[in-house]
Automatic annotation (TrEMBL):
Native species: Actinomycetospora atypica
Keyword Lyase (UniProt): no
Record-annotated HTH tetR-type domain positions: 13-71
Protein name: TetR/AcrR family transcriptional regulator
DNA-binding region(s) in UniProt: 34-53
PANTHER family associated with the record: HTH-TYPE TRANSCRIPTIONAL REGULATOR BETI, HTH-TYPE TRANSCRIPTIONAL REGULATOR RUTR
Domain of life: Bacteria
Keywords: DNA-binding, Transcription, Transcription regulation
SUPFAM superfamilies recorded: Homeodomain-like, Tetracyclin repressor-like, C-terminal domain
Length: 189
């Protein structure tokens, strides 16, 4: 994630955060949302938006990075609120939503930036999965020795479901199947 300059003013940080929040919502609704429409929704001038994000691709990348970081940051709270299998399921439902957003944003990115964003997110996502799996291993609710890369690949089916109600229902069933398969009593013979 790009570092903030220490001299950045508080209002500039607030504007940037507001732009990212509004842009995430706008791009989730319409992957073609313009920079001017984002600025208007954020209640700022176009010049303010362009100072932070010189082009649409820079904004899209920043939105994706912020969303990944927000998702990774949710792990401790989920584990505090739910048993590890439920926290893992909740987190993967959030990840599936983020990946659907990224697919929508993908059209706004050059192939190189799309690949770079995916590669940049991979490490933090796998570490978040590792944390969730370790919590389940410690309390005995998840199988020991699960590889987070394998679990991520297995979960890939969840975000490949079609849009709409039927796709959401299928994603819910797949989440149940995958999380159930990670339990210690699900090894099969």
């Amino acid at each position: 994630m790009p570092e903030r300059r220490p001299t950045e003013r508080a209002d500039a940080r607030q504007n940037r955060a507001r732009i990212l929040e509004v842009a995430a919502a706008a791009l989730a609704e319409d992957g073609e949302a313009s920079l001017n429409s984002v600025a208007k929704r954020a209640g700022i001038g176009a010049g303010t938006l362009y100072r932070h994000f010189p082009n649409r691709e820079a904004l899209v990348l920043a939105v994706y990075r912020a969303e990944v970081q927000h998702l990774v940051d949710r792990v401790p709270g989920l584990l505090a609120a739910e048993p590890p299998p439920a926290a893992l399921r909740s987190w993967f439902a959030l990840l599936a939503g983020l990946i659907r957003l990224k697919h929508g944003l993908g059209e706004a990115l050059t192939p190189a930036n799309h690949d770079a964003a995916t590669a940049e997110a991979y490490g933090p996502v796998v570490e978040a999965i590792r944390t969730l799996l370790a919590a389940g291993e410690v309390d005995g609710s998840l199988r020991p020795g699960l590889d987070p890369d394998d679990v991520l690949l297995l979960m890939g089916a969840v975000w490949r479901t079609p849009a709409g109600d039927a796709g959401r229902e299928q994603a819910e069933r797949l989440l149940d199947l995958v999380v159930g398969s990670l339990r210690p009593d699900s090894r099969g013979a």
